[in-house]
Amino acid sequence: DPAQYAPQYNGYCAYAASQGSLARTNPNAWRIVDGKLYLNFNSRIQRRWVQDIPGHIEQADANWTDLAGDLKEPGA
C-alpha cells in the first residue's frame, strides 16, 4: 500500500505545518508516528517538533486544508 508510506503534508515539514506555513524537508529528519511518516526541515527543527508531537500533529492537521490550498497546481 504505497499511500501508507507517503509522507504527511505532501512531504512538507510537519513542524512548519503546525505553525501555519510550508517548508521544504530534509529526508534525514523523519519520524514514524502511529504508522505515518513525518518529515522535518532539519534535525534542529525536529527537536522542537518532538517536544509535543501530538500537539504539533493536531495543529498541522488543522492547518493543512488552508496550507494545501496555497500549493500551486502542476503547470500553473
Rg (CA only): 12 Å
The average pLDDT score comes to 92
Number of strands: 2
Profile the largest sheet. Answer: 2 strands, antiparallel
Quaternary form: single chain
Shape: globular
Label the structural class.
alpha+beta
The portion of residues assigned to helices is 40-55%
Percent of sequence in beta strands: 15-25%
Distance between the termini: 30 Å
The largest beta-sheet arranges its strands as 1-2
Stretches where pLDDT falls below 50 for ≥5 residues?
A: none
Order of helices and strands: HHEEHH
> Helical segment tally?
4
What does this structure look like?
The protein has 76 residues and is α+β, with helices and mostly antiparallel strands. Helix content is 43%, strand content 17%. The chain is built from four helices and two strands. The chain has helices at residues 2-5, 14-18, 43-49, 53-69; strands at 26-33, 36-40. Strands 1-2 form a two-stranded antiparallel sheet. Strand 1 (26-33) and strand 2 (36-40) form a beta hairpin. The longest helix is centred in the last third of the chain and has 17 residues, at 53-69. It starts with a helix and ends in a 7-residue tail after the last helix. 24% of the residues are buried. The mean pLDDT is 92.
Q: What's the layout of helices and strands?
A:
Layout: H1 2-5, H2 14-18, E1 26-33, E2 36-40, H3 43-49, H4 53-69
Antiparallel strand pairs: 1-2
Describe, in short, the structure shown.
Strand 1 (26-33) and strand 2 form a beta hairpin. The protein contains four helices and two strands, in the order ααββαα.
List keywords for this structure.
single chain; 76 residues; alpha+beta; two-stranded antiparallel sheet
